[in-house]
Amino acid sequence: MSLISEKAALLLIDIQKGLDEVAFYGAGRNNPGAEQQAAALLDRWRSLGLPIFHIRHSSQNPDSPLHASKNGFSIKEVVKPLNGEPVITKNVNSAFIGTNLLELLKQVPTQTVVLAGLTTNHCVSSTARMAGNLGLKTFVVSDAVAAFDNRDLNGKHLDAELMHQTALASIQEEFAMVTDTDHILSLLKT
Amino acid sequence: MSLISEKAALLLIDIQKGLDEVAFYGAGRNNPGAEQQAAALLDRWRSLGLPIFHIRHSSQNPDSPLHASKNGFSIKEVVKPLNGEPVITKNVNSAFIGTNLLELLKQVPTQTVVLAGLTTNHCVSSTARMAGNLGLKTFVVSDAVAAFDNRDLNGKHLDAELMHQTALASIQEEFAMVTDTDHILSLLKT
Fold first, then answer.
1. Pick among B91, B120, B152 to test the A interface (most A CBs inside 10 A)
2. Fewer Cβ atoms within 10 A, N terminus or C terminus of chain A?
């Protein structure tokens, strides 16, 4: 298997400045290096000329740091799109709902996607689940995604790392292959 | 709010005999009473004449207990469809992919769905996520869904109850309202 011959598409999901707003999202996040891993993937994808799709979330909630009127809507510098790279704007968690992402993948054409970004259990999981269910060969890069602390139905604290690990366990083998940046880069050796 | 005036649709997901096959799914499951709670919802839905959709999974894996050739493909007796009740067959986790479920909901017409069935973190979560992202008002009934034991990326055991609770926490308020059978029944008082 070669991700190069399959023209694997890199989907960078919601790596936006607003996700750093602690007052809205809380301080409890795992994988602080996720963005750097996503940037390493992006560099390799660019050098190989493989398809890249930047996905950004446009919240319909005017108070959200991801509302299009806010500075937080911008994609982080570390993975900033270059001129000409497609940027897809979505309003819900799944990058396949209300967008033309599936058509764009067919135009490449490719049946393989590699997902990185935020957050593991919300937008990454939703997009990975749909990608897998739509028949795409789907990879989720475990060290290039991250989650936030949460609470269970009784208000009990759920740690970001636990949310991340259980979300990945739910995806693994059912919807996607969960692997890490080093492994993905090894599949891109020329 | 009244679920009656909204013509809320009950979606019973993958409550199939094959899910009891321990050799395939393992013995570690939480909420052993989930099917009975789903049956209580079904009874009320029938008595009120509200829309009901039975969803069943037709696995493409010939070894799966949910392959259409197997006894396990049958819906469990406790929630067995009556003649005339729609039964929707799906091949993937989300009940909205490869089916006409969304069209059928529009024909009712209704914008509200109540989800029960198996499993919390796979087919229920995937269907709830898509329902919410498609703009439907979505309820997931916490005591009428259940999960199985799992393993994290390092092979560490993850208990069914933990998979269930973290899956519900990821859905809650982001995609759906997570509540219990008693609360749903209280919203159906005539």
1. B152
2. C
Interface touch B169/A153, C-beta < 8 Å: yes
Angle of the B160-171 helix axis to the A160-171 helix axis, nearest 10 = 100
Residue B15 contacts residue B76 (beta carbons within 8 Å): yes
Residue span of the structural domain in which A146 resides: 9-186
Beta strands in chain B (DSSP E): 9-13, 52-57, 87-90, 112-118, 137-146, 150-151, 157-158, 177-179
Total number of domains constituting chain B? 1
Chain B: nearest CA to A121, how far in angstroms? 6
Answer for the pair A138, A175: CB distance below 8 angstroms, yes or no. Answer: yes
Residue A70 lies in a domain: yes
In a domain, A2, yes or no: no
- Taking only the tens place, the pLDDT of each residue in A88-143 is 999 999 999 999 999 999 999 999 999 999 999 999 999 999 999 999 999 999 99
CB contact under 8 A, A162 and B167: no
CA distance A169 to A173: 8
Residue A131 burial class via C-beta count within 10 angstroms: exposed 0-12, middle 13-18, buried 19 and up = buried
List CB contacts of A62: < 8 A, sequence separation 6 or more.
Answer: A69
B166 contact residues in A (CB cutoff 8 A) = 121, 150, 152, 158, 162-163, 166-167
Domain containing residue A136: CATH number: 3.40.50.850
Measuring CA to CA, which residue among B98, B18, B120 is closest to residue B64? B18
Contact assessment for residue B18 and residue B66, using Cβ atoms and an 8 Å cutoff: yes
Tell me whether residue A21 is in a domain. Answer: yes
Task: Name the residue facing B153 among A129, A133, A172 (closest C-beta).
Answer: A172
In a domain, A52, yes or no: yes
> Looking at residue A48, what DSSP letter applies?
H
Q: Chain B: give the shortest CA distance to residue A67, in Å.
A: 16
CB pairs below 8 Å between A and B: how many?
96
CA separation (Å) from A86 to A36, A57, A64, A104? 20, 14, 24, 10
Q: Please, which pLDDT band fits residue A189 given cuts at 50, 70 and 90?
A: confident
Query: Does the beta-carbon distance from A153 to B167 stay under 8 Å?
Result: no
